[in-house]
User: Fold this.
Amino acid sequence: TGEIMAQAKWNIYNGEVPEEVELDGDFWAGQDEKEYAQYLSREFLGPRTAAIKASGGHLVSLDILTVDPKHQKRGAGRMLVDWGTAIADKMGVVVGTNSAL
Assistant:
């Protein structure tokens, strides 16, 4: 049908710990808003960053997974999870996930 049923974004670190980058730019009305956005970013990404560092970059992390409600319960999400976990299995590393609803 040409419709996108589901999508996933996996981070495959393959032994590399990415450089930590502070949220920056001129998107905010003032310094207070920018500092608050930076705080939220650090708090949200902190557990993931800690897990990547603790593993020495030997980690596969599911960053985003969505399934169109019209296509739920058809196995598309399961296929995307299986794809990423198969990569982790081949690499012999753990899979990390984080849920925020």
Notes: The two ends are 29 Å apart (CA to CA). Helices lie at 31-55, 76-91. The chain has a mean pLDDT of 91. The CA atoms of residues 15 and 34 lie 32 Å apart.
